[in-house]
Amino acid sequence: MHSIAAIILAAGKGTRMKSNLVKVMHDLAGAPLITYPVNAARQAGASRMVIVIGHQAETVQAHYAGQEDMAFALQAEQNGTGHAVACAAPLLRDFQGKVLILCGDVPLITEQTIDSMVRQHAQQGAAVTVLTTEVDNPHGYGRILKNEAGHVTGIVEEKDANGEQRAIREINSGIYCVESGFLLDAVAGLSRDNAQGEYYLTDIIRMAAERGLACISHPTADAREVMGINDRVQLAEAEAVLRRRINENHMREGVTLRDPNTAYLDPGTVIGRDTVIHPQVHVSGNSVLGEGCVIEPSVVIRNCRIGNGVTVKAGSVLEGAVVHDAVSIGPMAHLRPGTELLDEVRIGNFVETKKIVMGKGSKASHLTYLGDASIGSGVNIGCGTITCNYDGVAKHRTVIGDNVFVGSDVQLVAPVTVGSNSLIAAGSTVTRDVPADSLAIARSQQVNKEGWVKARAQGKGQKAKG
């Protein structure tokens, strides 16, 4: 097992993003851009992380607050990648092993590629290994210079390259594996003698070669892995690649995606086998979906736990809800945070719930609001029912026992309790507790005035003649 640390370069502003938010914190498939290289380094075995921060340093630092393996180095002025690593160096003075250097805006790099690079680095006893790839148009990238033996002798940046060097198609990804002792010594000796007047990290290759130390390249066949994000066009391109990876992994694990191009599943999503995801579905946060579920078109699910055999019908929105097995939801239902639906519950069209627990087999089929309520098993909630939970100052709870039948157009004014096996008559406004096994009627007595409409019509006619 190798001893590995990682430096993540994340100090740049990202001017081409044209944003008030620092580039590495832009959202990519439900997580900040920087999340992906950090996670890839961790998964490849890095046990210590140093993020080099600069623009909006506090925003990046706050995102990783409390993580014990994380440290931060401030690069107050951006004077090149070599300067960035030099800023991180003091935090690794006591570290001996291999140091991974990654860019915070390269999100498609994989654990497998980094792990393979580290293994080759160790097997060949290299001081420096640079991750490379070949591209048809290398414009803008640093070119890899090699000797006849195939060892890397240097990296020349575009602005410093001559015509022959610019024709080289193998380019520098900006990702390295370097022996810690050599790295700390080398960055201390960097100079700014180049076209841009910056401290180039790439100069450590030349320094290692001059000392007779082994410098090698580790090529990756998929150039997309080393794609840097400079603007929102590239951000969208990277998201398409990332989402395709996520979706293909789910399909290989037994999930059916009716249209993989329009299934938007965040990296943290867990989905059981034989679940079917229809087009235009968004599942985000740390959502978990069980086996054998059906998620119909245009459903949005955020930070929910959903059991087995659940059907979520078209157009429904679920946020922060816990849904047990064999539940049916929607169409066009809205489950807000704090909702828990036990087995076999039915929530129908245009039903909204918030901070409720609904017992086994209970149902609210349509046009209902249920908030701040505890609802027993086997309860029927009629169309147009409202739990009036807010009195203008505070929220109050409604408690409904088992096997209660609530008729249509009922208002339950909390705090109120309805005992088990009771029936609430349609059109009632319930303001007092209802005992178990009772019928509650809270509405005005109907009065029929026969002939009233005809008399009114005649009266209007006579008035008009006068």
What can you tell me about this protein's structure?
By secondary structure, this protein is of the alpha/beta class. The chain folds into two domains: 4-226, Spore Coat Polysaccharide Biosynthesis Protein SpsA, Chain A, CATH 3.90.550; 255-440, Hexapeptide repeat proteins (UDP N-Acetylglucosamine Acyltransferase, domain 1). The chain is 20% helix and 31% strand. The protein has nine helices and 37 strands. The strands form five sheets. It has a 23-stranded parallel beta sheet that branches. The chain has a seven-stranded mixed beta sheet with strand order 5-4-1-6-10-7-11, with helices on both faces. The chain starts with a strand and ends with a helix.
User: What shape does the CA trace take?
Assistant: elongated
Largest sheet: 23 strands, parallel
Rounded radius of gyration (Å): 32 Å
Fraction in helix: 10-25%
Structural class: alpha/beta
Counted by DSSP, the helix tally is 9
The assigned CATH architecture of the largest domain is Alpha-Beta Complex
The CATH superfamily title of the largest domain: Spore Coat Polysaccharide Biosynthesis Protein SpsA, Chain A
Low-confidence stretches: none
**What would CATH call the class of the largest domain?**
Alpha Beta
The fraction of residues in strands falls at: 25-35%
The third-level CATH topology of the largest domain is Spore Coat Polysaccharide Biosynthesis Protein SpsA, Chain A
The first-to-last residue Cα distance is 106 Å
- Averaged pLDDT, please? 95
Report the count of strand segments. Answer: 37
Total count of domains: 2
